[in-house]
Amino acid sequence: MRPPILFPLFADIRTLPGVGPKLEKLIAKVAGPLLRDLVLDLPVGVIDRSYRPRLAEAETGRIATAEVNVLEHLPPKVKHLPYKVRVSDNSAVMDLVFFHARADWLKQMLPPGSRRVISGRIERFKEQLQMAHPDHVVAPEEAASLPQHEAVYSLTEGLPSRVMAKAVRAALERLPVLPEWQDAAFRKTRGFEDFHAALMTAHAPVHEADLSPQTPARQRLAYDELLANQLALTLIRAHLRQDKGRSITGDGRLKAKAIATLPFALTDAQLGALAEIEADMKSPKRMLRLLQGDVGSGKTVVSLLAMLGAAEAGLQAALMAPTELLVRQHCATLEPFCAAAGVKLAALTGREKARERILTDLKAGKIDVLIGTHALFSEDVDFRDLGLVVVDEQHRFGVTQRMSLQGKGRADVLVMTATPIPRTLALTAYGDMDVSKIAGRPPGRQEVETRVMSADRLDELIHHLRLALDRGERAYWVCPLVEESEKIDLAAAEERAAMLQATLGLPVGLVHGKLKAAERDSAMAAFKAGETRLLVATTVIEVGVDVPEATIMVVEHAERFGLAQLHQLRGRVGRGKAKSSCLLVYHGALGETAKTRLQTLRETDDGFVIAEKDLELRGPGEMLGRRQSGEAEFRLADLAAHRDLLAAAHDDARLVLAQDPQLQSTRGQVLRVLLYLFGRDEAVRYLRTG
Ligand code: ADP
Ligand code: MG
User: Fold this and answer.
1) How far apart are CA 193 and CA 224, in angstroms?
2) Protein residue whose Cα sits closest to atom 25 of ligand 1
3) Does domain 448-604 have CATH number 3.40.50.300?
4) Burial of 622 (0-12, 13-18, 19+ CB in 10 A)
5) Does the Cβ of 390 fall within 6 Å of ligand 1?
6) Which protein residue has the closest C-alpha to ligand 1 atom 17?
7) CA-CA distances (angstroms) from residue 28 to 82, 222, 358?
8) 524-574 pLDDT, tens per residue?
9) CATH architecture of 50-146
10) How far apart are the C-alpha atoms of 158 and 178, rounded to whole Å?
11) pLDDT tens digits for 248-307?
């Protein structure tokens, strides 16, 4: 139950004076539907109205405030021209300019012969002073009501700044005084105000500097949000851990058989990770481990051996992958090893004809390892005894999805991520899962030569591509998909495939998200088999595809991709023995950020370096795939700027919950308020009431 003290903040914005259905929609779009969302929507700019020059000396382009006499109204002589109201402050004459304004309204606001205080941006049109649509027009006796400094909020079309600011002010008036949830000593050393005061300060910027994430007010608020995040994750983790787990100890016989059939020796990094996983499985506590490793670092085989360990102990294992394509691929990769070990493998993606049979066999324990998409966790999928769940490439799954999966039964959980997440992000997205890392790549890998080129040189590129394909090499050609105009992008990819096919005189494969799964599989299979040597794709190949014979990766509109994404794409080549290259093609002129991004890729192949840079350039939300996992987004915290606060919040959360696991002490009760305030209710579910 939400604490009553928060009720006012969880009212709809519609309850604010002057906010009707139309405004409600616009405000909800930029901030959210509740008063809570408005008060947590901090300004992005500030207008300073303290500049009060004599008009004759007013600087063009500045926001100025002046007291003036209204001289005369000049209605437009021709339609479509603006309506002007001439005013003067005795030093100069200025025209207030209005487009599409009603004369009667203007007459009422600016009666000729009256005195008015006006505020807005000074402009000059052919030496004539002008102010288009003044922000404020008030009678001199009301001048005191004119704000000296005005907060500017994120806006959307049709939502005027003043209206938004007014709505936020009205919401702030309803802000209850909340009990302090921060540790008193911590607050004191940091010099933080209380929550209420900090919000008021953050909403009343005077200078640009007040918008910095480093102001004490913004730091305080960011800390609150991070603390809520860390508490929630720690609670969820504790909940998962409390499910007993069990000791899973393999005798190594299946593992030995599989290792004997591997065409390579495991690297030290792989062995190290495997040892950590096995130790966790052996422990009676439930495993919650994150296996981080760059693309192609060899995580799959590690997970295979862990799954065989479960099978040795007579338990089942499940491997979840984000796409059907990857499920098929994992199946194909793991099948021979499972066969060698005498372990029964099956796939479940939701479109098997054999689904019923698989489910029956699963229940009967005739299947040891089940690979599938999230279809694995539909209600009717019933394991005989599930010992280990492996989640592959999980950044494609939402936080909630992941949580619900982990909540299932008492299986050990291993999450593999190919996006090397900086520690900062790992903490906020996973809480403190234990982490194993596979650093580096398996031996014998070639560096991928990375080149950045303009689309002007596409002909030259195609020429070289033809030579390479003639030599029997295989290439990916990626055309980006931008969500807003998927149709157009798709058309572009189709057109590109047709053009390449015509130019090269070779069959060209095409895969994209709109294809039926079977069609996509057959296109991939043809490429894997070498029947098509060029594969045009939208980013569906981004995740995990393994075709060691592919040596060339062309990425069109590389400027539209994030760093991590490009790194993933590049990881699709350089998987075999042959020398590989990655060609990043940009269209048009390159912006600064895009330039830095492509430059970074040219300079380094270290996923962790790239991830840190990516965080710097893009912000955390996008990096975790904002769309897939909306929960990763913060309102107030800026992970790049507030790293130290995150670390502090992390420690604070652990300490608090160690002493008060059910949040029942006085501070604990108040922290519950914090959790609700930031919408981390799902964590509160794991607490006893009271
Ligand atoms: P990831 O899942 O981490 O992206 P994979 O498990 O798909 O990486 O491994 C990439 C490729 O490297 C696969 O073709 C795999 O067979 C190969 N590989 C894995 N481990 C080794 C190793 N120790 N030595 C050589 N090749 C390896
Ligand atoms: Mg993989």
Assistant:
1) 12
2) 442
3) yes
4) middle
5) no
6) 298
7) 32, 22, 46
8) 889 989 999 999 988 666 455 678 889 999 999 888 887 877 888 888 888
9) Beta Barrel (2.40)
10) 34
11) 999 999 999 999 999 999 999 999 999 999 999 999 888 888 898 877 788 999 999 999
546 lines ligand 1 (CB under 6 A): yes
Question: What is the distance between the alpha carbons of residues 46 and 209, in angstroms, rounded to a whole number?
Answer: 10
Ligand lying closest to the C-alpha of residue 572: 1
Confidence band of 623 (pLDDT split at 50, 70, 90): very low
Give yes or no for residue 668 CB within 6 A of ligand 1: no
pLDDT for residue 489 is more than 80 = no
CATH architecture group of domain 253-438: 3-Layer(aba) Sandwich (3.40)
Q: Which of 175-189, 458-472, 671-685 has the lowest mean pLDDT?
A: 671-685
Q: State the pLDDT at residue 413.
A: 87
pLDDT at 445 over 90: no
Ligand 1 atom at minimum distance from 444 CA = 25
Name residue 642's amino acid: H
| Spacing, Cα 197 to ligand 1 middle (Å) | 54
Closest Cα partner for 277 from 405, 440, 414?
414
Say whether 253-438 and 50-146 share the same fold.
Answer: no
pTM: 0.64
Instruction: Find the DSSP H helices in 7-160.
Output: 21-30, 35-39, 103-109
